[in-house]
């Protein structure tokens, strides 16, 4: 049994990950900005943790005790073209998706180093490897997260700590529906949105993502990057095979 801290466990992917790991007999430390939303989760502990707040991260990790694995899940997205997205929104995304993940990793790493073992599991996305129109700010935050995680994989391996990136495509978690949209009818990129509606692949379920996380926790040597679902696997393979000198888009756009 491993003691696993999960960020963003109040809903969506994080909640189902917590349920899946608890069902498999793992000791779950569920965290969220609003700890009251964790009350019905089958967890050993339910803690308040805001990944954008250094003091909140420090307090939660101290209260959690020894951590065998971190599942860094907290995140958000927006829908906007790069030309017109408010820079403040891009900063908000990076603070949550990228710097927030780093804050929590930095907080748990000293204990893992001292024990000579641990796993850092980051919920990334295919958009950590490719860029999709109108979701560029989110992709940018995930590309940066991938660089952080890959660097940690090299640096922390000496101390017995492994690092893993889960890369699903679209997930039926409700995150897209909750996303802020900066694309009114007067925006010059508004016609592109209609083209993109048919471009979205069938989403994988939150249960599929949770199952992939459980496998990463249980496997002795899981890979650094783990595509989740057939669409992610095929799209990332196509991106790897595509030339690097032109933007990659797996499908035509005519707008």
By DSSP, the count of extended strands is 9
User: Outline, from the CA principal axes?
Assistant: globular
Helix/strand structural class: alpha/beta
Question: What is the CATH domain class?
Answer: Alpha Beta
Q: How many helical stretches?
A: 8
Radius of gyration: 18 Å
Largest sheet, spatial ordering of strands: 3-2-1-4-6-7-9
Could you tell me the strand content as a percent range?
15-25%
Going by CATH, the architecture would be 3-Layer(aba) Sandwich
CATH superfamily: NAD(P)-binding Rossmann-like Domain
Mean pLDDT: 93
End-to-end C-alpha gap: 53 Å
Q: What is the H/E order?
A: EHEEHEEHEHEHEHHEH
Provide the low-confidence segments as ranges.
none
Main β sheet profile: 7 strands, parallel
| Proportion in helices | 40-55%
CATH fold annotation: Rossmann fold
The figure for the number of domains is 1
Describe the protein.
The strands form two sheets. A seven-stranded parallel β-sheet has the order 3-2-1-4-6-7-9, with helices on both faces. The protein has a single domain, classed as NAD(P)-binding Rossmann-like Domain (Rossmann fold, 3-Layer(aba) Sandwich). It is built from eight helices and nine strands. Helix 3 (87-115) packs parallel to helix 4. The protein is globular. The model has no long low-confidence stretch (mean pLDDT 93). The relative contact order is 0.15. The protein is α/β, with parallel strands linked by helices and 255 residues long. It has helices at residues 12-23, 54-64, 87-115, 136-156, 175-178, 190-197, 206-218, 230-241; strands at 3-6, 27-32, 45-48, 69-72, 78-79, 118-123, 161-168, 180-181, 225-228. The longest helix is centred in the middle third of the chain and has 29 residues, at 87-115.
């Amino acid at each position: 049994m491993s003691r696993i801290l999960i960020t963003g466990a109040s809903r969506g992917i994080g909640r189902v990950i917590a349920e899946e790991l608890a069902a498999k007999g793992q000791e779950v430390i569920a965290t969220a900005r609003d700890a009251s939303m964790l009350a019905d989760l089958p967890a050993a502990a339910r803690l308040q943790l805001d990944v954008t707040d250094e003091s909140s991260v420090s307090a939660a990790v101290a209260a959690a005790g020894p951590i065998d694995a971190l599942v860094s899940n907290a995140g958000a997205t927006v829908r906007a073209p790069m030309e017109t997205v408010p820079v403040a929104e891009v900063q908000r995304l990076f603070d949550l998706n990228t710097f927030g993940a780093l804050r929590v990793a930095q907080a748990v790493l000293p204990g893992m180093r001292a024990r000579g073992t641990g796993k850092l599991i980051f919920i990334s996305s295919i958009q950590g490897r490719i860029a999709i129109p109108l979701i560029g700010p989110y992709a940018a935050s995930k590309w940066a997260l991938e660089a952080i995680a890959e660097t940690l994989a090299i640096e922390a391996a000496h101390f017995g700590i492994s690092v893993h990136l889960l890369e699903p495509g679209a997930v039926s978690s409700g995150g897209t529906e909750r996303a802020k949209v900066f694309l009114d009818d007067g925006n010059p990129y508004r016609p592109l949105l209609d083209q993109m509606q048919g471009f979205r692949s069938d989403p994988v379920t939150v249960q599929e993502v949770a199952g992939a996380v459980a496998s990463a926790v249980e496997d002795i040597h899981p890979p650094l990057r783990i595509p989740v679902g057939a669409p992610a696997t095929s799209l990332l393979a196509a991106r790897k095979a595509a030339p690097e000198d032109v933007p990659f888009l797996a499908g035509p756009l005519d707008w």
